[in-house]
Amino acid sequence: MFHDPTIVGSWPALVVRVDASRTLERWAETEPALRATSTVADVVQACAATSDHERSDAVLAALVRRAAADNGADDDALALLLHLLSGLVWTTVRQLQDLSPDIVAVVTGELACQIRRYPWRRRPRSIAANLRHDTRHAVLAELRPRNRRHPERGEVLTADGDITRLQPAVPTPEADDVDVVELLQWAVDSGVDPRELELLIATERGRHLHPSGGDDIVAAEHGISTRTLYRRRRRTLETLRAVARDYLAAVA
Question: What b/e readout covers 144-182, taking b as 16+ CB neighbours within 10 angstroms?
Fold first, then answer.
């Protein structure tokens, strides 16, 4: 949670105000997903329940609808979402901290804008993942506009910048707006084991550094056989292809 009142206001004060005014009970009259969350503590618990993604996603979707500019623009709903999604902000800040000395304020402000204009009718699910993508994409566009004539200025996935072997595994469309890093983050948010993605990336990097024996080296470093490496790699790529379809549909 955000606790710095200079960023999005006081969390304790917000909790007191929302609970005392029975705001959530009022919202629940038109948002069935909030009927079991009569207090802010209930909302926090629902959103923190990693074992019930569908439930937490429904609660976030209800709050986004309340906060959206085309559906009432409720300031308390916006403030509540900014606190609840502070983990998203900190993740983005860590990734982009070199782009601005005020990166926390930039990311927080952009997240607020994305919530206000969120297309909740067209994209009713995967709220956190959608907001993560949209916010990060917008911040990058503002602080480091993409120069298609100089692709070396863009982000890289591996330490050496070589992603040519990874990209064919993902069904990239004609549009060049697909961000491989965002796709991998989406995959993690969708439940793909980060360790399998790390192994995949390590394999691609190993092949770049050691064209004649990279797979054997990576397998030894991870304490597995080369056959196991190939099996896990193939399974991860198959999963990524499936996840990519949902990703492309969500960001279309």
Answer: eeeeeeeeeeeeebbeeeebeebeebbeeeeeeebbbeb
